[in-house]
Design brief:
Blueprint (H helix, E strand, L loop, with lengths): L1 H59 L1 H4 L3 H4 L27 E5 L4 E9 L4 H10 L1 E4 L9 E6 L27 E6 L2 E14 L4 H4 L5 E9 L6 E12 L3
Parallel strand pairs: 2-3, 4-7
Antiparallel strand pairs: 1-2, 1-5, 3-4, 5-6, 6-8, 7-8
């Protein structure tokens, strides 16, 4: 009898011990899960938020939904190298800076551009990335013949997403025939996307190649949070403000 009682007590103690171990295991699993969620939120929070805002705007924001209407209405004769239409065709909101701004209605972007950023000067590049969009020094002025380079969101790693602006984190949403506009020195220049590609990080041929016509290249690191490649969105000038 006494032996059976001791055995039962030992079994009861073992069950309590096993229950505690299970509860402790579940506790650590929950802590690990919550920690992972926090890390993901901290590291990729801006990108996730931008995706949510874009998805909402794509459904409920008329300006975003109708952003491609202007490009569909363009005359078919407008091709690379031909004369541009001498009046704006992209219906854009008031630019944040009439001296130099980039507006991409589809992505709800209306952002000041910092001019003449020397790409060989890391301090200048980081300043531009911290405050907005940069215009690469040595590239042509928007609207002129040649290639004008605007860049943003060029992070070295995922942790830098919080250090720098994330204006171009949704740039991959642009497709051929989408439109964007540059307001430069008080004039509006409308561009239509004619090329979209990803190149290796060490490929800088797009900086030195001769552009046919009047081109603006939008450049950012790809995928967001990595510097493995560069996403290039190239648009040709289709319309401009003359007065």
């Amino acid at each position: 009898m006494k032996k059976d009682l001791i055995q039962n007590l030992n079994q009861l103690g073992q069950k309590k011990k096993n229950k505690k171990l299970k509860l402790l295991g579940l506790f650590f699993i929950n802590v690990l899960f919550i920690t992972c969620l926090v890390i993901i939120s901290v590291v990729y929070g801006p990108l996730i938020w931008n995706e949510i805002v874009y998805s909402y705007a794509s459904v409920f924001d008329d300006n975003v939904k109708n952003s491609t209407a202007a490009s569909r209405d363009l005359p078919k004769r407008v091709t690379m190298g031909q004369d541009v239409i001498l009046k704006p065709v992209n219906n854009i909101p008031e630019p944040v800076d009439k001296e130099f701004s980039l507006l991409i209605p589809k992505l709800n972007i209306n952002k000041k551009v910092l001019p003449n950023i020397d790409l060989s000067n890391d301090a200048e590049v980081q300043r531009a990335l911290s405050h907005g969009i940069g215009w690469a020094k040595g590239t042509v002025e928007p609207g002129d013949f040649g290639n004008s380079l605007l860049f943003a969101h060029s992070t070295r790693n995922a942790w830098d997403i919080w250090r720098y602006n994330n204006e171009f984190s949704l740039l991959d949403k642009l497709v051929l025939d989408d439109m964007f506009s540059v307001v430069y020195k008080g004039r509006q220049y409308d561009f239509i996307v004619f090329e979209k590609k990803v190149v290796p990080a060490n490929d800088i041929s797009y900086l030195t190649s001769v552009a046919e016509g009047r081109v603006v290249t939008l450049q950012t690191c790809h995928p967001p949070g990595s510097d493995a490649g560069r996403l290039l969105i190239r648009g040709r000038l289709v319309a401009m403000q003359t007065g």
